[in-house]
Specification:
single chain, mainly alpha, two-stranded antiparallel ribbon, 4 strands
């Protein structure tokens, strides 16, 4: 495989589309997509080491992030099973709940901002002009009686 081709594939895989939601709790603690992605990867791999490798991070970094989430919420998000070779980590019920709550926030935020996000995305088109938006937007009061 051509090394340049690999770089292009890696770049394409890193591009996100949509909102980037980070929930700040007002006291310095937060929960963001990287932490949630890591928890989901741990769930799939059932191993912190395997999840770290899959995400291209060190085991230490992965463990510190998982520990941070657990300390932030004062509730463990993973349960480890020392001595198991591979598949030595499971998410706790609370870890599963964090994923569910975060993904719900993400989905509701995306739905609430879909129109505006679509307009921003359209503005990336080289042929975009402000007039195209005005032509596609109903006039104020149109359709009301």
């Amino acid at each position: 495989m051509d090394p340049q081709e690999s770089d292009e594939t890696d770049d394409a895989a890193q591009h996100r589309d949509g909102l980037f939601i980070r929930v700040y709790f007002g006291d310095g603690r937060h929960l963001g997509p990287g932490m949630i992605d890591l928890l989901e990867t741990v769930r799939a791999e059932r191993s912190i080491l395997s999840a770290a490798k899959k995400m291209g991070m060190s085991y230490r970094r992965a463990w510190l992030l998982i520990d941070e989430v657990g300390r932030n919420f004062r509730e463990p998000v993973v349960e480890t099973h020392p001595g198991r070779r591979g598949h030595g980590t499971d998410l706790t019920a609370f870890g599963e709940r964090l994923i569910t709550l975060y993904r719900a926030i993400e989905a509701k935020s995306a739905a609430a901002t879909a129109k505006e996000a679509a307009e921003l995305r359209a503005a990336l088109d080289p042929n975009w002009t402000p007039e195209t938006v005005e032509a596609a937007t109903p006039a104020k009061g149109a359709g009301r009686r």
